[in-house]
Design a protein that fits this description.
The protein has 222 residues and is α/β, with parallel strands linked by helices. The protein folds into 2 domains: 118 residues, Rossmann fold (3-Layer(aba) Sandwich); 96 residues, Arc Repressor Mutant, subunit A (Orthogonal Bundle). It contains 9 helices and 11 strands. A 5-stranded parallel β-sheet has the order 2-1-3-4-5, sandwiched between helices. Strands 6-7-8-9 form a 4-stranded antiparallel β-sheet, with helices on one face. A hairpin with a 6-residue loop joins β7 and β8. It is globular and about 55 Å long. The chain starts with a strand and ends with a strand. 32% of the residues are buried.
Length: 222
């Protein structure tokens, strides 16, 4: 999930729509609401956040260092002021990157992946048995051949791969794919997505690589 903070509701709604087209959940906050949320949110909720995007906010309203006290997710400033002084000020505040607007949503996602890779939180792909699972939106490969997947199924597979060796609950998968604030989608939709994903993987691999235990969740095995 991507969290964006901006004083303009129209901006946060616009990014929400754009990220949704890429199959990435997004939650928007006004600066005041965000400060209260980031200090009180549960650790499991913060682990669902892939990156924080800071847009137009009153100076001093958002502290990147406050965010970093709770999570290691990248903090990126979206800047409409194309000046060296403003860029330096943003970096001095503690952000990981400054992106000048306008910018394509895929560039933002690519920058997030690059920052996380440098921080050793993400790699460009994970190999599990015959599967190569990419973390940048590309379809996975099995024995070198692409396996086209709908975006939600692809994101679930990426999330399971990024938590390789750990079991994740249905709630954690849902939060990562749909966002922690999406009340219009039932959490049980995860079971449907995973069922379809397992069938496709089983057909290609000859076995089921997703281990599931009731009440405990899912993990990738091979």
């Amino acid at each position: 999930m991507i969290v964006i903070v901006d004083e303009r509701e129209l901006v946060t709604e616009g990014y929400n729509s754009l990220f949704d087209r890429e199959g990435v959940a997004c939650a928007g906050f006004a600066p005041g609401e965000f400060g209260e949320w980031v200090t009180s949110a549960a650790d499991t909720d913060l682990k669902s956040v892939r990156a924080f995007l800071i847009g137009d906010c009153r100076e001093g309203a958002i502290s990147p260092r406050q965010i970093r006290d709770r999570t290691g997710a990248p903090v990126i400033a979206l800047s409409e002021q194309h000046s060296l002084e403003n860029t330096l000020r943003l970096f001095e505040s503690g952000v990981d990157d400054v992106i000048r607007k306008p910018v394509h949503i895929r560039e933002i996602l690519a920058r997030i992946t690059a920052i996380r890779r440098r921080a050793h939180e993400d790699v460009s792909y994970t190999e599990i048995g015959a599967m190569r699972i990419f973390m940048d939106g590309r379809d996975p490969e099995i024995d070198g051949q692409p396996l086209p997947l709908p975006r939600r199924e692809r994101r679930i597979l990426e999330y399971l791969a990024s938590n390789r060796g750990r079991r994740v609950t249905k709630t954690q998968v849902f939060n990562a794919i749909y966002g922690i604030f999406d009340e219009e989608v039932e959490e049980n939709v995860v079971e449907s997505h995973i069922s379809k994903l397992r069938k496709k993987l089983r057909e290609k691999l000859g076995q089921d690589p997703i281990d599931s235990k009731r009440f405990l969740g899912y993990r990738l095995v091979f």
